[in-house]
Write a structure and sequence with these properties.
single chain, 461 residues, alpha/beta, five-stranded parallel sheet, 15 strands
Length: 461
């Protein structure tokens, strides 16, 4: 299913231009021609993103505040469109709650990068909220911290003088610790430099043009900084680095000309989200470990998977988002235990779990469902995407024999995979429990047809 975007602007020409751009990119577009209709329409359609234009009445600021104050709608990201690249207007929009501001004239690459970035962030935030609710289901949710948390912010400027300038002005706006860091320090073992920064502010140009963008990519790929806040300061290159920076994982890009106030507002909001996500991940990894994790592989167990699927099913019925369920089984695993012993079989299971996890998105569920059987849930995927992902998982296991500590020779292991997609084109529907049964039927067919293959429930019918 395509992501849904709500455009609100009382000027029809503005809506038409945006709709054409977004429709070509395969987004589903909903339009509102009055600010008064936006909240009700958002409740009805549950968009993944809202774009507010200024229009004739210029009511976008009040509409943005109304949406962000609404508990049911406040998590929907908002882009506000400004008629000109005006710093005071942009700051006003950010302070009203806008997640980003797009300035005319229309730069399609930048706009589409903003859209992709915010929808991607919305998906990650939905997963955080899903984990929070699941924690409550298991009685392990913690009360939110009542104290103000102090963050560590790293400034990576083109030169030392600029870094000192940035820190001097930013220190008047926020009370967090602010450090000036070089590019090489950011890529070293930053934990040895006094802790991993919670946020990085990076100049788009460092020693060379686009060095800042390469640094963004490196930080996003590393385990220690994967969840850090990253803000890029555009240094005025032509063409603008905004679209590439956002696609590489920056949370925001600031226009040329350092503005400490805008940076502080953005950092405050982004850090609050980061801390909430950090707390929930920590809670999940500790408080729920014994209750919902398999002790051998470290994956979620059957109990957690069933609760997760039920919640995913409710969300799907509420917002119309598709999801896929896969049941995976190691082919002839009993013969491995019989021939080499259970300790070697355990090593194989652990390695298979590692390979599967490595080839899934962070938002996907991977659980050990029992014995040599695994379960995967994929939110927001189509049948074609599920097919591609299942084949990738099958090859990740079957194409590379597994080395074990007790044997000089590697062991070849293959997977059979059964897949069912909620509301797919073949008419598969039902509860999460029924969808799991469909995937299991598809797995049985994959086994019967020779193993080491992917079968969909529609193919198994």
């Amino acid at each position: 299913m395509s992501e849904r975007i709500l455009i609100a602007d009382d000027l029809a020409t503005n809506r038409i231009v945006l709709k054409v751009k977004l429709t070509v990119a395969c987004y589903e577009v909903i339009q509102a021609d009055r600010c008064a209709d936006v909240a009700a329409l958002a409740r009805e359609t549950r968009p993944d993103l809202i774009i507010l234009g200024r229009g004739r009445t210029d009511c976008s600021l009040s509409t943005c505040r109304q949406l962000k104050a609404d508990e049911a709608l406040g998590s929907i990201p908002i882009i506000m469109v400004s008629d000109q690249d005006d710093q005071p207007a942009r700051l006003e929009a950010i302070m009203a709650g806008a997640d980003d501001v797009f300035s005319k004239p229309l730069n399609e690459a930048t706009l589409m990068a903003m859209v992709r970035n915010l929808i991607r962030a919305r998906g990650a935030e939905d997963e955080v909220l899903r984990r929070r609710d699941l924690s409550r289901d298991f009685g392990c949710a913690e009360a939110p911290a009542l104290f103000e948390r102090h963050a560590r912010v790293a400034l990576i400027a083109p030169d030392a003088e600029t870094g000192i300038f940035w820190r001097m002005h930013l220190a008047t706006e926020i009370r967090h610790r602010i450090d000036i860091m070089t590019q090489s320090q950011a890529l070293e073992d930053i934990s040895a430099l006094g802790g991993v920064p919670d946020a990085f502010v990076i100049a788009s140009t460092l020693s060379e043009t686009s060095d800042g963008l390469r640094l963004v990519s490196e930080l996003r790929s590393r385990q220690t900084t994967r969840h850090a806040v990253i803000v890029v300061q555009d240094c005025g290159e032509a063409p603008s680095p905004s679209s590439m920076a956002l696609d590489l994982g920056a949370n925001a890009v600031l226009r040329p000309g350092f503005d400490a106030r805008e940076l502080a507002v953005r950092l405050t909001r982004l850090l609050a989200r980061k801390f909430e996500g950090d707390d929930l991940r920590k809670s999940f990894d500790t408080s729920l470990a014994l209750a919902v994790r398999d002790p051998l592989t470290g994956l979620h167990n059957r109990r957690f998977a069933q609760s997760y699927l039920d919640r995913l099913d409710r969300e799907s019925r509420s917002n119309g988002q598709t999801y896929a369920v896969m049941v995976l089984d190691l082919d002839r695993f009993k013969s491995i235990n019989d021939q080499f012993g259970h300790p070697v079989g355990d090593e194989v299971l652990v390695e298979v779990a590692t390979r599967l996890k490595r080839n899934l998105r962070e938002m996907d569920l991977l659980a050990r469902y029992g014995g040599e059987e695994f379960l995967i849930a994929l939110p927001g995927v189509s049948r074609a995407q599920a097919q591609t992902m299942a084949e990738r998982l099958r090859r990740a296991v079957g194409d590379h024999p597994i080395a074990t500590g007790g044997r000089p020779d590697c062991i070849t292991v293959t997977l059979s995979i059964g897949v069912a997609v909620a509301d797919d084109a073949m008419g598969v529907s039902g509860t999460a429990h029924e969808l799991l049964q469909f995937a299991d039927q598809a797995l049985y067919r994959a086994k019967s047809d020779g193993r080491n293959q992917v079968t969909f429930v529609s193919d198994a019918a």
